[in-house]
Design goal:
Layout (H helix, E strand, L loop, with lengths): L5 H4 L8 H20 L3 H21 L3 H18 L9 H20 L5
Length: 116
Amino acid sequence: MTYQHAQLAQGRWKEFSFVEQMGNIGSEIERTIRWKQKGNPEYSARAFERALELLDLTIDNATSGPRLRELTRTREALADHFVFSNEYGTTDECWKNYFFCFAYAARVAKENGKVR
């Protein structure tokens, strides 16, 4: 498999805390939404592929049942929203809010010296 985030796939991703990982995934989701809003489906699809790649790396690192369950459900709901018919009824704003929490938590932890 060819990774767009080759260095991260080689093990660097595991060095990030869970909230940092989720915050980075959220950045790609934000790009997906912005490119979609700008009318560029090709760039939007590329950003979404990168988000799924990072999410899959996070799923590969998940060890606990509840975390793994949430990650796989998140992946399913993201695919439903951005690729399929959005049967779950999520919105772009919903995804922004979901991932913002992780980005905020990662920022606070970094500022307080609690990266893990």
